[in-house]
Structure formats: structure tokens, C-alpha cells
């Protein structure tokens, strides 16, 4: 690093560099606020980090067994501390899933428990949940209601099986469920998930799509507004997701994932999509196809179906194994050679960040009555509270209409 202490000639350059760095940092944390020692959630996030440090260490010291057993899904581990109590639910099952996704436990632990402050995510979402983001932006921590946690745990085995069957699924990747109990306060439940919009440095627009019209418009905000603006269905009109040869894959995967959600009897989930213009050097060239093929097949090949490690073989034997598996039956695609590849899809000119989130709402009697009321209140219009079969079909139709 150059020393500018006694070099007045280069002072303007130094000032420009400082301004540039300030702009970069401001952009990096646009819509995000560091939870530092002055923040209302600082003490809470410190407790969460301490609890996660020990909880993840358990899975590092005692790797999950293969295959999983029923008790792994119902496991509850409690860590008592002086000022709080930390709970971990289905720890072995989630450790297994993280391994399947290629996420090293030590990297996961470092990201969640580093000395760097968590970030508070501020958006225009109507959700009353608290959203925390790790400082490197890889993982979300979101507060959930107790019944939502119970629902996910009851369906966790089916969820993991679906990801094994379709390793390139659009479903958001849940990585852990925890609770924290502070004396004289209500117990809070947190779910940890991968950030679909990672890395987000150059994302231009974000959309939350439900495939309907009622309450699906967001008023755009000014550029200097610190809130991360997530637009909706009606804002998307006139836009297209240009995928070229990838279009067939995403339509099929949307059908597979929504069929799974329909079978869970859930509705009101969202398809997230964000836009990022591709730089020339990022556009697909076909030069790294071999590495991409191996990466694309690695999750499937290293699952419970095959005992041998993918990387313990030569390239030729790896390719033979890939060819011997009917990857098409599992709708595997050629993943881009980027971080977070499972949620990134490259078209000819745009990079798209994609995923399905918030599939906790069961089509209960209450929702059936709400559907009836909305059909009377909004005649001829589409709304989100409909039966799961219609909801799934409508979202697939939306994607079919808005892709090319």
C-alpha cells in the first residue's frame, strides 16, 4: 500500500479513492443495516451466534449418519447458557442436507458466527418477521411462528427426499431450525436458509410473484430510499425472462416443485426472480462445460444412491458414472460456474436469481372460507387464496407466459 502521509501531490487521488470506497460500501449495504452495539437486536444476535457456534460444532464433531433415521427428524438439542437457552431441531437431518448441498460445516459455522455484525434486512415486505443476514450475505435468519416450525418439521423428510430426487429444485434451501429463550421473554423460533439473491452486488430489480392480481402492485420508490424494493406481479407486466435453451428446464422444474407443494396442500408461496445484466466475460461460451457437467451432477452422484465419492475417481470414470445415471429423469441442468449456482440461471444477456419461498400456509378450513369471501369481494379477479391445485397451475402458467 502506498504511503500518502507526506505526499501532497497524490492527496487528490487519495480523496477520490476514499469517496469511491464510500460509494461501494454504501451500495454493498443498500437496504441493510449493521446490527452493531447500538442496535436494539445486538444483544440478541450475540446470543444467537454463541448458540449457533456450539450447535454447529456438535455436527462437526459428530457427523450425521447415513441414511437418516426417524429420530434424526424429531431430534431436539438444548444448550443452556447463563442468560438464555438455545434449541436446535432436527440437527442431524439438517446437517445431512447441508452436506448434500456441498456446504462444509466449518464454512457454515464461520459465516454464521464470525465477529462481523449481522445485517438487518429492510424491505417493503408486509411480513412481520425479523430478517437477519450474515455479514457475508450468504444466509438468512428469519423468525417464524411456532406452528410454521412444526409444519416444516412434520414435512422435513418429504422436503429432503424431494431435493434428493430433484437436486436442482427451485425450492429455497432450509439449513437449520433453532429457538432462543431469554428469561421473562417469549421463546423465538428462527429458520436459517440460503440467500437466493446471493451475491447481490449488481442486481437491478427483484420480484415476488404469486401469479395473481389482487394486491400485487408495489409503488416504486425513489433511488435514494434505503429500503430494498421487492416488486410484484403487476409491476412485472411488459417484462420477459429471456432464457433461450434454458426455458424448457425451468418450466419442467416449476411443474415438479409446485406438484410437490400441491401434495403438501399448501398455497400462497412466492416465486422470486431478480435481474442482473451479464458482463461480456460472464456470458456462456462452452469453454468450461466439462467442469460444469461434473459440478451439475455432483449433488446427485454424492447422495445416498451412490457410496463412492465423486472426486475420488478420474475424469473419465466420473463421466462414465454421470452417463450411467438418468440425470434427465431428475431434471438436472448444466449449472453455471458461479457461487450459489442452484439459484442462478443465465440467459443470453441476463443473469436471473430464482427460487420458491414461504410454503407454510396450509389450505385449511379458514383458508377455504377466505377463498369464498374473496371470490365475492373480487369478482373476475385472481387472488392468492385459492386451492393448492389451482395455485400451482396458475404459477406454472405465469412462468410459461413470461418466459421466452
- What low-confidence regions span 5 or more consecutive residues with pLDDT below 50? 1-12, 19-30, 303-316
Placed side by side, the strands forming the largest sheet appear as 1-4-5-6-8-7-3-2
Note the quaternary state here. single chain
Strand content: 15-25%
The general outline is globular
- Percentage of residues assigned to helices: 25-40%
Distance between the ends: 49 Å
Which structural class do the helices and strands define? alpha+beta
The succession of helices and strands, N to C, reads HEHHEEHHEEEHHEEEEHHEEHHEEEHH
Tally of alpha and pi helices: 13
Rg of Cα set: 23 Å
User: Mean of residue pLDDT?
Assistant: 85
What's the count of strands? 15
Question: What kind of sheet is the major sheet?
Answer: 8 strands, antiparallel
Protein traits:
eight-stranded antiparallel beta sheet, 15 strands, alpha+beta, disordered N terminus, 17% strand
Task: Please provide a written account of the structure.
With 404 residues, this protein is α+β, with helices and mostly antiparallel strands. The chain is 38% helix and 17% strand. The chain is built from 13 helices and 15 strands. It has helices at 11-28, 42-61, 70-74, 91-100, 105-113, 146-154, 156-165, 233-236, 247-263, 289-301, 315-324, 365-377, 388-401; strands at residues 32-34, 76-80, 85-89, 119-121, 131-133, 139-144, 174-181, 188-194, 205-209, 230-231, 266-267, 270-277, 344-346, 350-357, 361-362. The protein has an 8-stranded antiparallel β-sheet. A 5-stranded mixed β-sheet has the order 10-9-12-14-13. Strands 11-15 form a two-stranded antiparallel ribbon. β7 and β8 (188-194) form a beta hairpin. α2 (42-61) packs antiparallel against α5 (105-113) and α9 packs antiparallel against α13. The N and C termini lie far apart (49 Å). Mean pLDDT is 85; it is low at 1-12, 19-30 and 303-316.
